[in-house]
Amino acid sequence: MIKRVPLISLLLSIAGLLTSAYLTYTHFDASALLCSADAVVDCETVTTSEQSELMGIPVAFLGLAFFAFLTVICLPFAWRIEALKWVRLGAIGVGMLMVVYLVAAEFLLIGKICLWCTAVHVITLALACLLVWASLAGTPAPGPE
Asked: For the chain, which ranges sit under pLDDT 50?
């Protein structure tokens, strides 16, 4: 399992990147959003809320940038650079703080849940668990490709 950490982290980062790219696109074109709307689940309400932007920047775009960065630092060659372990941990720490804020915003301020956003939150949490576990377990760098 431990030898698969670089691959799993890369796949999770790419999944987050693709989901964030979709959310970024739908931030500017809400008609492209595929999500049911009911009493609790309403992606459009969440993605067009005041909390969908941070200092004028769409949160989805911040997620896109975050996962693009994580994708690069989770590439197999990047796992061979010991110092990047701390960069990955720092980045995922910031990501988790953002997830806590966004989940709180969904529940406490907006009163609705976006399933696409939840997917990004779950991916971020899974990456956080994986990267912290790998750091504690001392994941070996992948061999030459």
From this structure: 145
